[in-house]
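Supplementary Methods S3. Input chains for the assembly prediction are listed below.
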Amino acid sequence: MSTADLRLAWRDVDWTGIVLAAVMAVVIIGPLVVVGLWAFAEVWRFPSLLPQEWGLRYWGMTLGRADVWAALSVSLQLSFVVTLLSALICLPAAYAFARLDFPGRDVLFLSFLTIQAFPRFGLLISIATIFLTLGLVGTFWGVVLIQLVNTLMFMIWIPTAAFQNVDRRLEEAARDVGAGPIRVFWSVTLPQAFPAIAAAILLTFVGTFYETEGAWLIGAPHVRTMPILMISFINNQLVVQLGAVLSLMLWVPSFLFLLMARRWMGPEALGRGLGG
Amino acid sequence: MTDTATSGGAATGRPDASGRVTGLILVALPVAMVMTMIVWPIGLAILDTLWLPGPDGTGARFSVASYRFFFSDGYSLGNLWITIWTTAVSTAILMAIAIPLSIYLRFRTGRAAAVVQALAIFPLFVPSIILAYAFVRVLGPNGMVDIILANIGLPRIRSPYLTVWGPVIGFVWDNLPLTVVILLAGLSGVSTQAVEAARDVGAGRIATFRHIILPRIGPSILVAASFVVLGLFSAFTFPYLLGPAAPEMMGPFMQRTFGDVLDPVQARTQAVVTFLFCAAFGWFYVRSIAANRRRMAR
Amino acid sequence: MDRRSLMKLGLAGLAAPALMRPARAQGATLNMYTSSDANISDFWSNVVKPSFEAANPGVQINVVIAREGGGTQAIAERALAALQTGTGPLLDIIEQHDPNLPAGGIDAGLWVDWTKAGIANYGRVNPLAIQTNFGLPYRGSQVLLAFDTTKLGQDEAPRTWAELVDWIKANPGQFIYNRPDKGGSGGNFVRRAIHEANGRDPSLFTVANFDAAKAEGMLAGGFDILADLAPSLFDAGAYTSGNANSIQLLAQGAVTMIPAWSDQALQAINQGVLPETTGLVQLTDLPLAGGFSQSVVPTNAENLDMAIALADFLLTPEIQTAIVTGIGGFPGVSWSELPADLQERFAAVVPASIPTFPGGDWGAAVSDGWYRNVAPNVTRD
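Predicted structure tokens for the full assembly:
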């Protein structure tokens, strides 16, 4: 495998990777390092290259608050529950959209676009009415439901493309040697679509973690998620340091997730997706 | 999950009954959710823009006056145009970066590739509000870039803060992970052997890309572009925090019309126009999925 | 709809939920929302909450911090939906919210009418601060000019509008104000230009006298002044998107002068966000317009009695004094209602009143007119 890869390398030297990594480190990490520096800065004025006064004052102010940890826990619970439910109801639907024929298929498929394409501000009263009638306002499950709706487009559109791209000849070959439909789906179709499904799950999880609009409309004042707490730290404060501290804190779960993402979508997973 | 013979039958124009029922059952739950919680409220909002009180303030009736105002108002059209421009430029830049990057990541193993991939996905975890602050601190007037330039004795940059390029830079940075993740998933369907074979018979990089890779990741490019366009078209945070006061992108424009000009009907009209542009773009994707379904089933 | 039927509806809205209002419950929690800057939420947590809870045993105030711009609006829309469905809005009071939002809310009887709410202290409110019957002005703030004294000496700072215009033109790129709808400091700078174009007479603009045709003519002069300034502003016509963003540019030394809320500027200097060398100055020919926070209580609040009692409490001398001394704000009640020693102590620094500008239709006309007539004037290459 590795010799084949080397032979097929698009550039003869791995300089590409090193240059790419260097450029992206500056462009992607650079701005965040500056924000990170602000988290340790008490005073930093132009044109000094580094803060004139350093300190940990803002860290103490942030970490000392119990509500930060409670909000982090609420956010993680929400993200796990929403992502799981979303995968359960959307993946079968995505398979149907990719493979089956039924009346109104294209229109129904297109209808998921309304989730992202129609600005929410004009719909708040109608949406609030539905949730108030269901008695879900201010509850955990109310927030789960509104966030679940938000995830539908990602969780259906991305896997649909993947189910379509699955090589039908492999499925037919499996059937020819006597595998049943469930077995074919489980052992042939699903592994091939897996990288895309993993991508959809990743995007859904992170998107749900940072979702604020629905969580605020339905959850306030009882359900406090991390980004809602964070907004109260950043938006209304003159001192952005508090926000910088919190964003650094949010990168901790993010890093854990990045590691998982590597396992799902790294070269190994891609290899598995190819069935080899 | 029924077998693929069902869709095979569908493609030749003989939809079979069990596939139709199974399909509807499988999509029922998400469709019901989107219909009740999104499509129905949108229907009400659209009705609001077409059912206006008469000139004397009483007796609601059908009218397209709010749409006529939008399409005859130079300021509104200017805002629509800057939105289209920003979306097109950002998407083009994003694709120009993400496609080569994803191809590199797909066919490379090793430490450098792992680092590049981690970096490319990283912005996913940075809330846009933090990025906006980072932007002002780095590219803003007297920001980090100016600090570094001043310290090595060079003149300052012309800051993109509060110009049309502010949101473009923010969008590209913010949407890079989404695009790379979707493209990378699509590229997993391109077999290494096929590329290898093409290279063996002497196909150049461009030819390999056009004939081997592009046909396989076409749907992924479309789905990625759809998400990016949809996200950008009604985006709020970046144009509001980083862009110029005028022309406004549709996101801040709608919110201002709604909450500050106190004109909910015109705000909803702006929302409907925005939505129609997005829907038109989404239709391309749906069409390509349908075409692909026929092609694959053949 | 005329004013009288509006009031009637407001009354009806007040009466209906009163029937099902629970008796003053022990252990009630009041949900108070704010989207104001941090000094205000701190003021609520550290001053209002403890003293109100001490005066009303068993009652708790839950200070809920909302996103700036739209945060309280979503909650207000939810309250309107709750009113229509007869459910609870999980909201008792919003510390600062425009009662005109959501559209149709006043007509539906969403907000408590303060003239009918029977609160003892309402008569003490500064009449100039009242915009509608549904917003209770409990604190005010003035906008002044904040500048960098290392670049412009305290003695050389402009004191009149004419001097300010001369200074801005003589120092191109050194002044910026924020968009009038995004944080009020820029908005009140715009309003000051409009006052200038109308003989510096704020009394020409009242809540009741809005007329679209007349307004266009009255506002045009102000927009001309501002359009004329645009090429001399930062980046030849850029406008920041909020109060804090302007302060950030001043702190980074990118500009020399900005308009700023007095309380926010003082807090920024205290926290070290702005350097010690920051100067503050108010115009003497006519101060920059200020603004008053309008508190609203929905008629379907879970703890309506308590919320109204809290609103009344906000107008007591105790809290009004704390607003002046604690956050450098401006009282919502008339100065004559405050303790004599306090009046004396602040007489030198705080004007007897601050010019205001009506919201509602006037505010909407200023904001939209500015975006259409002033903001596009960018003379960049």
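DSSP finds twelve helices and nine strands in chain C. The two ends of chain C are 49 Å apart (CA to CA).
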